[in-house]
Amino acid sequence: MSLPAHTGRRKYLIIARVGDNSLHASWLEPKEFRNFDLCLCYYGDHPGRYGGGCDYDLKDEGSKWSAIKQIVKRLGDDLFQYEAIWCPDESLQTDAFNINRMFHIFTDQALWLAQPALSADSDCSRRETVQHPEYILRYT
User: What is the pTM for the complete model shown?
Assistant: First the structure.
């Protein structure tokens, strides 16, 4: 698995392990709000399936976190050119506007670690991970 050099086009990076039912295509719209590079590590049966919509198109075996570990190792110092990195699950339904907003809050608040809240209709086991309409940001 090799990665091309960082293009410097965008401030943020999303690294996602994706299969044939990934929802990541919604992350790229509307295009005018896309402020991130997208690195997809595909584990399905159709190599190159998502190559057109991402900046880094990889195929690798193994679990989500072992694949992300390999990507991080290969990107090396190029990771430091990004202001923030997000490693979402492929099953998250969102769009470029909300991702842009998430990254803006992250950098505006100088956070070192963060995650977006889930919508009220999400399948989750922890109540504190669900959106609360009165908050922009919560510390836990």
Answer: 0.87
Domain ranges of the chain: 12-129
- Give the pLDDT confidence of 44-94 residue by residue, as tens digits: 888 778 877 788 887 777 888 898 898 888 888 988 999 999 999 999 999
Cβ atoms of 17 and 68 closer than 8 Å: yes
Q: Would you say how long the chain is, in residues?
A: 140
C-alpha distances (whole Å) from 108 to each of 1, 35, 105 are 34, 15, 5
Q: pLDDT digit string (tens) for 88-127?
A: 999 999 999 999 999 999 999 999 999 998 888 888 888 8
Q: Retrieve residue 35's tokens.
A: 């402020």
